Fold these 2 entries.
Entry 1:
Amino acid sequence: DTGVSQDPRHKITKRGQNVTFRCDPISEHNRLYWYRQTLGQGPEFLTYFQNEAQLEKSRLLSDRFSAERPKGSFSTLEIQRTEQGDSAMYLCASSFSGQGETQYFGPGTRLLVL
Amino acid sequence: AQSVAQPEDQVNVAEGNPLTVKCTYSVSGNPYLFWYVQYPNRGLQFLLKYITGDNLVKGSYGFEAEFNKSQTSFHLKKPSALVSDSALYFCAVRDMFRGMNRDDKIIFGKGTRLHILP
């Protein structure tokens, strides 16, 4: 399967702990996006990269959140000092930049903060 | 700023009947429009998109959508529903015109849960 992959699929952590998620995009895609999805809502944009450059960050992305894409391939999303409000599905998507580009999504990482 | 609305939280359709899932949008310029489907505990799967050209767009699994500029709508349709079509459907929009600020993100609606009744 050459789609977008995410690891882990599920994460349970205690409040105050740090967590890190990984996303591996489709290999030829130069853009990578992170979204957060809570129950009953559509995905909300967090941030995106073009190659290794982080081009946009949402106001939703507090200073406890950081994302990297060091070599322009896989990306990590770290949440420091997790809070119960961080519990959500974190989705990664990738695309190849161009007119009307289509984003292809991974299966997501479901985070539960106790 | 762009926005998208899905006015129905849930749509129930009998198997074999036609289905419609509604979507309206708001953008500054011309839109790129997308439909995605999400099955339980899964990521989003791309169904179809409108960029330009023919207002009727055909996509995966027999779905199609009609772009209506005057009504700013992009409703998802299928002539004959299957039980396996039961899922959560998301409409999304991206503004072609990004003005002075770079804005490549797409905005999703809240989703419509489709129930196909056997």
Entry 2:
Amino acid sequence: AQSVTQLGSHVSVSEGALVLLRCNYSSSVPPYLFWYVQYPNQGLQLLLKYTTGATLVKGINGFEAEFKKSETSFHLTKPSAHMSDAAEYFCAVSDQSNYQLIWGAGTKLIIKP
Amino acid sequence: EAQVTQNPRYLITVTGKKLTVTCSQNMNHEYMSWYRQDPGLGLRQIYYSMNVEVTDKGDVPEGYKVSRKEKRNFPLILESPSPNQTSLYFCASSGGGSVYGYTFGSGTRLTVV
């Protein structure tokens, strides 16, 4: 069965520092991969996605992620953290039907002033 | 504005009192889904619907019912709520599969006492 593992339920970085949120997946076929963000008291919104083509994908708010098939990873990065990036981030992978998503448990990003 | 609308945003109820959480989307999406979000557990799917009159169980369907009589509406029904159904609930929709991204509602925080 497919699964998604996000390393670290909480990640704390200083404002201006690099943000790295880790996501590993298990899948027998090349999947579609997603990062969603949930700001406090809001629903989730799509941050970025990988479907085919270039393995480095750029999303909103300066975030990007790289699909590494050999490592079955799709880590999320941002060069310089802002206070407004404080949120919970979810990694997800599509199932075989490409309608359903398999979700990671989420990583809460904390930004220190 | 394209959106998924959930009501109510907050609800406190007593054990055993039937309730319905409404979900409506204005994007003509075929696919709709209900999730519950609990700390440390991420998002767990309750039910989903691929189109009108087509619904299927997700990972945690016990204690919930859904219906899809119209394309735009996908209500979640708790016939006899129990305290373990206290959670944050999200409705989501998608047109054409996960590759196009899901649009989420703002959430319904349910407390069952």
